[in-house]
Amino acid sequence: MPALFVEQLTVIDCSYLDSYNLVLGASWIVDVELEGILNEQGMLFDFALAKKVIKEVIDNTVDHKLLVPQKSDYLESSHNMEAISIKFEPPAIGSLKMVAPGASVAFIPSEEIEIKVVEEFLQQVIIEHLPDNIESIKISLKEEEIAGVSYQYSHGLKQHGGNCQRIAHGHRSAIKILKDGVRNSVLEKQWAELFHASYLAYKEDVIEYVTIADIDYIVFSYDATQGRFELTIPKDICILLETETTVENIAVYIYESLVAIDQNHQYKVYAYEGVGKGAMVNELI
Question: Angle CA(42)–CA(44)–CA(49) in degrees, nearest 5?
Fold first, then answer.
């Protein structure tokens, strides 16, 4: 049977609830295969249309959202016309609570969020939006091959006009640090370990510090164009910045921290945001 394939059709940047790390950012490269019967033009589906339709469904379904394992025993959720409330409380590591507009959450019918589960979920959703001659679709998600270390973080950008304003979305990112023109794997590892499974936040968005069952939490809240967002998350996994947590400001934060410790060397920081994009800093103006 004829098959059409599109490699690296798009990248999904999201976060997901995890029983061991609580919340993890992810960046998945999307490959697609379509099988079916050729149409009167001798085609399965025009490449341009296929890419547009599939990307639009993916963007609306999982991209820049918090993926929630709907069948998890650790999950409680409710919703009304204005918002969805989520509480996720796996053993021993504390809980995450979020109240946010419904569009910022994707419920996945599983006990855990795994790549295979998300692939199957997307296949079921996307096939409903394809022409009748398409009989099957295969979605393959993969992480970027990174030469060096990476970390998975979550954040939200209240001033962003698009979906980055959602308070719990994230990325899997690489980091490169040059010290006196030479790449320094020790520093890269230190920063990757610090940022891994973290929540990066703007200090201005903190509304409360609370202690529940001997665990310290920070409550973040802000209003954005999509609605009101609130997140309660363990303090131990939070990293607070004096600025919005854009990738540009993350790069500056790392650079300033390095220079504050050692001013006798020249540094260049490449902070990535997901796949193939990011910000670089080698001096401060």
Answer: 115
pLDDT in tens, 105-116: 999 999 999 999
Domain 3-281, CATH among 3.60.9.10, 3.30.565.10, 3.40.50.150, 3.30.479.10: 3.30.479.10
pLDDT of residue 285: 59
Q: Decide: 281 and 175 in contact? Cβ < 8 Å.
A: no
Domain boundary assignment for the chain: 3-281
Closest CA to 108 of 87, 130, 90, 125: 125
Please identify which residue in the block is written with the tokens 């989520």.
86
Taking the C-alpha atoms of residue 268 and residue 240, their distance in angstroms, rounded to an integer, is: 22
| Average pLDDT for 167-180 | 98
**What pTM was estimated for this model as a whole?**
0.95
Torsion of CA 4, 9, 15, 16, to 10 degrees: 10
In 3D, which of 15, 21, 72, 22 has the Cα closest to residue 232? 22
